[in-house]
Amino acid sequence: MRRVFTGIALAGLLFTATACGSSGGSSGGTDSDGVDQVKVGVIPIVDVAPIYLGKEKGFFKNRKIEVSMEAGQGGAAIVPGVVSGQFQFGFSNMTSLLIAQTKNVPIKTVAAGVASTGEQGKDFGAVMVKADSPIKTAADLAGKKISVNTLKNIGDTTVRESVRKAGGDPKNINFVEMPFPNAPAALQEGQVDASWVVEPQLSEVKAAGGRLVASNFVDAAPNLTVAAYFTSAKLAGEDADLVKRFTEAINESMTYADAHPDEVRTILGTYTKIDEKTRGELMLPKWPTQINQASVETLAKLGTDDGIFDGATPDVAKILP
């Protein structure tokens, strides 16, 4: 359930993919009825519920697309999988796509993927502490040990911004890499002072009495675009019609998901292991159809200031539709 992946691992995989000779073009095949077989690399988390719901509702089939989802191994295989043509489309957080862009990886976003709710204390991700923690505000996180699922990515850069906005100094935060599912226990046992978690781990920490000290996505930018669907530059250039139809289908799926939260909670039971009780309680994200460019530019600036792009500066325009 890793939402993001490290720049180092990403770079190695990306260059492996391109060095092996990327195909990255054409769909996964077209049947005798003219239906495109399309594979999408996803991470089996709450964020991608709309694509599963859209498949169930026939939004892709209505556009002559037979879509199938394949889970990326920890997320790190999705970008090179798209570049190589293993997947025609993929899902990734925006910071990872910006990292890829600074490595000159030929990708292009086609649709928004998931966004913050924009509401303090009511977002699908947050920095949590134990109920009796002396940490009262985000400023108190300065110098503390905080778990994030991946270092040098969207988690630590947005957490740092929460600390800055609260008047604290984020320079000496000790970020510890830890898979989201391990974070609740680590926090409870005192292995870390605070944990950045997303749903369903956010609900798990709350149920154990945890206390929210920062809504880091909300602090980073208003209505932050957290992730997007993307394709290879090659496919975008060679089959613009398929890309158009896929984009229309995923946009319809996200609009439907945003308007039918109960159906989202139900569909989660088909591709995740989230139990029914938790599915009914967790905080859902927003699924707008437009990428918030200003928020992506903010992520690029935060990442540049925090040094996660290894001295490079992302060109946001190059990856946006």
Automatic annotation (TrEMBL):
Compartments where located: Periplasm
Signal peptide (residue range): 1-19
UniProt main location, coarse: periplasm
InterPro entries referenced in this protein's UniProt entry, alphabetically: SsuA/THI5 (IPR015168)
Taxonomy, superkingdom: Bacteria
Entry keywords, A to Z: Signal
This protein's record includes keyword Signal: yes
Domain SsuA/THI5-like: 47-263
PANTHER family membership: ALIPHATIC SULFONATES-BINDING PROTEIN-RELATED (PTHR30024), TAURINE-BINDING PERIPLASMIC PROTEIN (PTHR30024:SF47)
Family: Belongs to the bacterial solute-binding protein SsuA/TauA family.
Protein name: ABC transporter substrate-binding protein
Organism: Paractinoplanes lichenicola
Organism lineage string: Bacteria, Bacillati, Actinomycetota, Actinomycetes, Micromonosporales
